[in-house]
């Protein structure tokens, strides 16, 4: 069963994704989470503290995902590309948290902290890809492919007809084989 803190953060994520940062209030989070105002304020004393809590969650989930990338049986590139493709969200909630945090990026009060957290997520993924590939250019190219697929996921744009993620990975492996 999720803790009150997790329920609050889950509700905050949903509200951010559905309505954007400017329209989310503490009262809306209380209602969506099904907690008392005191329960919310015990964990997050302000809207800024709530945003900080979400950024902490993003960093935690990013670190766990980077570990999953490194330990993926099919390799880091395959994991990164598959979880970036439409329908392939990362386990552990990173994709959802990342999307919610994106909705905070233009905030004047939390904007820089959000950009810093997103840069950390990017660095975690890149480092895991670099561990496998050993070449910074190939690691960055693999990350860009994953980022492009992730953008398609966010916008609902499908893969090109008659192409699958496996087709993409097969071609990528020709140019970026796993280090032994």
From TrEMBL:
UniProt keywords, alphabetically: DNA-binding, Transcription, Transcription regulation
Regions that span the bilayer: none
Pfam families: TetR_N
Annotated InterPro entries: Homeodomain-like_sf, HTH-type_TetR-like_transc_reg, HTH_TetR
Ranges where the HTH tetR-type domain occurs: 2-62
DNA-binding region range list: 25-44
PANTHER family xrefs: HTH-TYPE TRANSCRIPTIONAL REGULATOR BETI (PTHR30055:SF234), HTH-TYPE TRANSCRIPTIONAL REGULATOR RUTR (PTHR30055)
Annotated protein name in UniProt: TetR/AcrR family transcriptional regulator
Species per Swiss-Prot/TrEMBL record: Pseudonocardia zijingensis
